[in-house]
Automatic annotation (TrEMBL):
Its EC number is 3.2.1.28. The chain crosses the membrane at residues 144-166. It catalyses: alpha,alpha-trehalose + H2O = alpha-D-glucose + beta-D-glucose. This is Trehalase.
Length: 167
């Protein structure tokens, strides 16, 4: 941010960067010990919310948040958010739509691997990549498709079709 020469633009960038502190949340340890007492899902690390009225993560939004964290040089926070998703995949078999128990019945298009890709592209953290490799392999895309297909006259139409251009 210091490299921005225009004083007004630099000030604007610093104000945006300061927003991360307001968007950062940590789940209390009591949630892990007494999950039935809370609607929020336990996460082992801090996470960012998209803002507004939400107090929990939302899966799809996190892709864009991670891109912002990486652009802000907040690599550890981005890594912690990915570790949270690894935790959720290992616990539930997928990443829920959001961080509440009532969101456990649905998910969103699979963004975990693209998130890891974005993180690794910026950090070249091979050790982390190896630590999540088996989790990425465990994400069962066929199971995801079973919940997101419509069968019409023996035709299968994929509702969500993602095409990530990877180098």
């Amino acid at each position: 941010l210091i490299a921005i020469e225009d004083r007004e633009l630099r000030q604007f960038a610093l104000e945006i960067h300061a927003l991360w502190k307001k968007l950062c949340h940590i789940v209390k340890p009591e949630v892990k010990n007494n999950p039935k007492r809370y609607s929020i899902l336990y996460l082992p690390h801090e996470f960012m919310i998209a803002g507004g009225r939400y107090r929990e993560f939302h899966y799809w939004d996190t892709y864009w948040i991670i891109k912002g964290l990486l652009a802000s040089g907040m690599h550890d926070t981005a890594k912690h958010m990915l570790q949270n998703f690894k935790y959720l995949i290992e616990k539930y078999g997928y990443i829920p739509n959001g961080g509440r128990t009532y969101m456990l019945q649905r998910t969103q298009p699979p963004f975990f691997i693209p998130m890891v890709y974005e993180y690794h592209t910026v950090t070249a953290d091979d050790e982390f990549l190896l630590s999540v490799m088996s989790t990425m392999e465990a994400v069962n895309f066929k199971e995801y498709l079973n919940y997101h297909l419509i069968i019409i006259l023996h035709l299968i139409i994929v509702i969500y079709c993602l095409n990530f251009l990877m180098n």
